[in-house]
């Protein structure tokens, strides 16, 4: 998909491929069963709509080094912004339209603070195990892309 927009300070239009924008999920801690199958399932489904990259780091200190350059960084946090599914789809579409990669960061069992985060996302007020939060995030990313594509998403 292509969108057209003016470059900063310019008056001409340039083509920008939304398909070239990556969604990167950076997670602290090793993914284990039973979550492995679910993550693989949603990774495959999302692959039909977006370029998804998953990065797993052993320690929270390694997160910053794995952030994509110029990416819009969203940290999963219980005090972050909550969305309905359609509002989250709009959030994803706005990020994609900006032409910047979108990185979601999931802290480990002890949480994580990240000064590079431009946004804080809450999956709800309950505290989730970090592996389950990863599955829920991927499911919501898949649902958001179905909404963006105008496809049914309730089933």
Describe the structure.
The chain is an alpha/beta fold. It has one domain (21-148): Alpha/beta knot (3-Layer(aba) Sandwich), CATH 3.40.1280. The protein is 31% helix and 26% strand. It is built from 4 helices and 7 strands, in the order βββαβαβαββα. It has helices spanning 35-46, 63-66, 85-97, 130-148, and strands at residues 2-5, 14-17, 22-28, 51-57, 72-81, 102-106, 119-121. The strands form 2 sheets. Strands 4-3-6-5-7 form a 5-stranded parallel beta sheet. α1 runs parallel beside α4.
| CATH H-level homologous superfamily name | SPOUT methyltransferase, trefoil knot domain
From the 3D structure, determine the CATH topology: Alpha/beta knot
CATH class: Alpha Beta
Number of strands: 7
Strand content range: 25-35%
| End-to-end CA span | 27 Å
Task: Output the strand order for the largest sheet.
Answer: 4-3-6-5-7
Low-confidence stretches: 1-10, 12-17
Mass-distribution shape: globular
Q: SS-based structural class?
A: alpha/beta
Largest sheet report: 5 strands, parallel
Helix content: 25-40%
Give Rg in angstroms.
16 Å
State the domain count.
1
């Amino acid at each position: 998909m292509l969108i057209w927009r003016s470059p900063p300070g310019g008056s001409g239009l340039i083509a920008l491929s939304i398909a070239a924008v990556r969604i990167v999920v950076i997670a602290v801690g090793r993914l284990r069963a039973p979550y492995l199958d679910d993550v693989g399932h949603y990774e495959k489904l999302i692959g039909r709509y977006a370029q998804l990259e998953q990065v797993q780091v052993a320690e929270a200190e390694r997160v910053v080094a794995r952030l994509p350059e110029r990416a819009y960084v969203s940290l999963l946090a219980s005090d972050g912004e909550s969305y309905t599914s359609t509002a989250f789809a709009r959030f994803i579409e706005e990020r994609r339209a900006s032409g910047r990669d979108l990185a979601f960061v999931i802290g480990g069992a002890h949480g994580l603070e990240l000064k590079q985060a431009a946004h804080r996302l809450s999956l709800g007020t309950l505290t989730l195990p970090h592996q389950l939060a990863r599955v829920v995030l991927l499911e919501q990313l898949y649902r958001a892309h179905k909404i963006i594509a105008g496809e049914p998403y309730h089933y």
